[in-house]
Task: structure prediction
Amino acid sequence: MSASPTAVSPTADAADAAVAAITGAANQDVTFSLALTQDQKDIRDWVHGFAADVVRPAAHEWDEKEQTPWPIIQEAAKIGLYGFEGLAQFFADPTGLTLPIVNEELFWGDAGIGMSIMGTALAVAAIFGQGSGEQIGEWIPRCFGTVDDIKVAAFCASEPNAGSDVSGVRTRAKYDEATNEWIINGQKAWATNGGIADVHVVIATVDPELGSKGHAAFVVPMSEAKGISQGTKVSKHGLRASHTADVFLDDCRVPAAYVLGGKEKLDERLARVREGKKSNSQAAMQTFESSRPTVGAQALGIARAAYEYSLEYAKEREQFGRKIIENQAVAFTLARMKLEIDAARLLVWRASWMGRNSVKFENAEGSMSKLKAGEVAVWVTERAIQILGGNGYTREFPVERWHRDAKIYDIFEGTAEIQQLVIARAISGMYIK
Ligand SMILES: Cc1cc2nc3c(=O)[nH]c(=O)nc-3n(C[C@H](O)[C@H](O)[C@H](O)COP(=O)(O)OP(=O)(O)OC[C@H]3O[C@@H](n4cnc5c(N)ncnc54)[C@H](O)[C@@H]3O)c2cc1C
Result:
């Protein structure tokens, strides 16, 4: 793996090579180790350099503007950090650690900009996890566009009445035999990049009687499909450089082949479910389960930024004739911050390694990692504000932004309560409500 994957236009060959790199790596299980390889260190340092030189200096401006930082996404594309080939190379690392390392470093720079760069990955994960080889080759490169014509992608599962309870999805996809198309109707809520993306992966129900087992994922490209539009753009507490909006689907038609996995497989799966046979088929949950450790790594990046900043501040700031870090109250807080961050990282890396090395999650280790990292990020950033005192509460210093950004990690991709529910069910084998 090269330290800085070069940006390549999304040709079919490049896509095939990237898919081959990922699937090839899936068969090389490796032992878990905390000793990073030289490749991993090089990639970490390369992403850190981009985060420090390009992302962090622009963070305040884009947070204030509340807009997608297209020029910075383009910079990321130019160096190969944003794009299919880059993501494929990170994912292909058989240890599973490169992806969380990249996310931690990028989000250390800024979470809002980080989400604008990595938000596309959720749609990519859905296509990669549920699409056929042909769909992967066609749609994943289109999620990113090219360096000269950057695109982002959106994953649309949530709805106004379906947040934690994904089975509440009401968006309906009906097959129209006459035209060999799907007709999709419904409203999606909270979609990262919703309406500004080209590729939207939309979770819709094909058979409402089957609950979440009747769901399927559809590719809806804004550039081709009529009847898809952006609703209200949300004004947020944090992650303000990342676009979040409702998406409306109003008699939106897409070809039959745009259902991920293909219509034939979907029909077979639904038939199995109707016969009461086992089917591992919850389209939205599959995507969330695979992405949780990576999301945890993003939270870690924010926490680390706040810890490092407040450590330096405490070593400089003097009160009562001494540095404030010379007071145990402050020094012990910093010690706990470091401890919690390192503990969370171990959980994130464990889950990332397990997910990559066909080690079954027995105790919802993916959920554990995301829950812990989210809570640590919220706690560490709040403590960082405390260490900076009045300065910490102002927009002149970055810690208040980091605290605002951190809070989302308790909420999206499964709230803290839902992660506990998942863990509780896994450890007990019982249906805890
Ligand atoms: C910035 C942002 C970006 C997002 N990006 C996306 C995206 O790209 N795609 C997408 O599909 N969605 C996205 N979401 C949606 C996100 O996943 C949901 O907000 C989240 O799943 C929670 O759903 P909800 O907001 O409806 O809260 P609710 O489900 O209404 O929950 C409200 C509260 O009730 C608690 N609760 C609910 N059920 C239970 C239970 N059984 N036991 C205990 N407590 C419970 C929750 O934990 C929470 O505290 C995004 C949200 C935000 C804010």
Remarks:
- The longest helix spans residues 283-316.
